Amino acid sequence: MSVFPISKASPVTYPGPPPDRADVVVIGGGVIGVCTALFIARAGQSVVLIEKGRIAGEQSSRNWGWIRQQGRDPDEIPIMLEANRLWHELAGQTNVDIGLKATGITYFASTAADMARYEAWLPHARANGLDSRLLSAAEVAGMYPEMATAFQGALVTPSDMRAEPWVAVPALAGIAAREGVRIVEGCAARCLDIAGGRIAGVVTESGRIAAPRVVLAGGAWSSLFLRNHAIAIPQLSVRENVAATEALPDVAQGAAADRKVAFRRRADGGYTLAPPGAPELFIGPDAFRALPKYLTQLRADPFGQRLLPAAPRGFPDAWGTRRRWSADDETPFEQMRVLNPAPNMRKINRLIRDFEAMFPGLQKVRLKAAWAGMIDTMPDIVPVVDHAPIEGLVIGTGMSGHGFGIGPGMGRVLADMAMGCPVGHDLTRFELSRFSDGRKMVLGPNV
Fold first, then answer.
1. Cβ pair 385, 413 in contact under 8 A
2. Which H helix or E strand runs over 59?
């Protein structure tokens, strides 16, 4: 099983062409878009999913592979509980082993303040029936006997899971295709077709698709796409680095993190490593525009991000990236099929050293692969899941690094929103208007 994320060099599985019309068009072939399209098809609607590059080519194959209930915003937990159930169901509906295992997630506590934060989050877990609990220092040592680092305790959720994202999301797309979703890779959505103030379709590089409803699940590209239609959302993209080791002795079946390194066991016997904090933000026009919305986050954690001077050419918030175009123009989405940022190898090498120090019995840890992804994030670290100012348009973006795990649940929610059905959850927390109607900015849990 390869651990390399999907890229523009990956073979095209769904070449198209797109149909002339559909009941719903979903823009974006990540886990959110794939799951949204699947549940729309299951409701008997005709749906086409268009992806400018490859299914799961960006963050959906570059994430840590955690399916995490632990530490989530209280308003996300009910949707995440649904997602957990759906992951189990969907894993049984494909002939592909996606590596789904309930091996738990553990957050180590280095200080008493860490333990206090974990304890403060526990009432949300109990209110939703989660099996999360605190561990003592002795219990942590017993759970991880090979670990040299001593901790004051930990927060653990045994029902949390792991899966192989570069396998899982294409497998979900396979289910969707078999159930009638028309998937088209290498087909960028250029702009919305709007008539009389409402959606009439989508103009793609391969022609127009007539449709009365559209779901935008474009990840790091969503803000750029919407800006061309005069819809502003304070979404930014940050780089996260990931390392994959060669096969190693089994020191932990589940996923865990301290302040230096997050790790999880992979199906091939290696470990996926990542730095749990300080994502890297490339400064661009959107960063300046959105700055006032991020002040609460900056005050709460002024060193939470590393600032870099400029994004590489063609990135969504690069200084030279076009912000306006017509339906006849080649767009930034066609010019960069797959957003593939180079990893920060200094961070990668430090991750390897930190993991070796945590488990010295492993001795030399060999690097198998390294990559990076651009995470679409929001000022309060929760997504936008809402109807847009244009009638017929639904937005699902800004998952803030939480999208892989919650994907099936959020996809079901977005599908029902697009079809005008009750969603079964309170989505007030995720409304786009929270950034413009004077509501106080409430940050997601710092857990």
1. yes
2. helix 59-62
